Amino acid sequence: MKFSLLSLAFIFTFLSLSSSLKAQHYKSDNLEVSKLAENVYQHISFLKTQDFGKVSCNGMIVVDGAEALVFDTPADTAASEELISWIESTLKSKVKAVVATHFHADCLAGLDVFHAKNIPSYAQALTLKLAAQKQFPIPMHAFDKSLRFTAGRTSVSVEYYGAGHTQDNIIAYVPSAKIMFGGCLIKEQGAGKGNLEDADTAAWPGTVQRVRNRYPNVKLIIPGHGAVGGIKLLEYTRNLFQ
């Protein structure tokens, strides 16, 4: 009897640990997800480009209880389907909304997948206009300067501070974790200037400085591409374009 109880306890512990590990990291050919803090995850997908080859693209997930928010879709429809499925099956949460941080494909290429599942999408007003001009998927709802979202009891602010990588780029901030999703406005440490096709390089340093002034206590920043870092990513990006 003791052996059976111990065996059951071991099996239960193993299954609980396995479930916990699955919720902290996921990897396939199309998609990676890593837990950064309580309620906050980074998702990584891959975009094939002519100029830069296969590029890893970052996004953010905020989840609390049965609700989740996604910031930037994965870079294609297959990875978007996979991400939504992973959130539902592993995190046991329903995606409440998706936010595109600018109009490029690495932010909204998977929007049609979200829309097909009746998940509302949001973006800065310029994003809708620019996406339409490029015949890209168009977010459903627009805002001007800022908008606040909640997943369960966890809040996220999305804010527009000006042009940089594009005219419409925004950032998202999770106050409870002091984590920022900088999107392509923010560069990883050591990165080059990257794709400047739609950039305003003159405005870029000032825009990043306004973000720096607003969030002097940010602990972790997810750039649009590359490795997560601290507040020094803001300083690095500003200096890169000065």
Automatic annotation (TrEMBL):
Cited Gene3D superfamilies: Ribonuclease Z/Hydroxyacylglutathione hydrolase-like
Enzyme superclass (EC): hydrolase
Pfam family, one: Lactamase_B
Segments passing through the bilayer: none
Localization per Swiss-Prot or TrEMBL: Periplasm
InterPro entries membership: Beta-lactamase_class-B_CS, BlaB//VIM/IMP-1, Metallo-B-lactamas, NDM-1-like, RibonucZ/Hydroxyglut_hydro
The organism's place on the tree of life at top rank: Bacteria
BP GO terms, sorted: antibiotic catabolic process; response to antibiotic
One GO molecular-function entry: beta-lactamase activity
Annotated Metallo-beta-lactamase domain residues: 56-225
Primary localisation category: periplasm
Reported cofactor(s): Zn(2+)
Keywords, ordered alphabetically: Antibiotic resistance, Hydrolase, Metal-binding, Periplasm, Signal, Zinc
Entry EC no(s): 3.5.2.6
Cellular component, GO annotation: periplasmic space
Reaction it catalyzes: a beta-lactam + H2O = a substituted beta-amino acid
Signal peptide as annotated in the record: 1-23
Family label: Belongs to the metallo-beta-lactamase superfamily. Class-B beta-lactamase family.
Subunit-level organization: Monomer.
PANTHER family hit by this protein: ACYL-COENZYME A THIOESTERASE MBLAC2, METALLO-BETA-LACTAMASE DOMAIN-CONTAINING
Record-given protein name: beta-lactamase
Organism: Pedobacter quisquiliarum
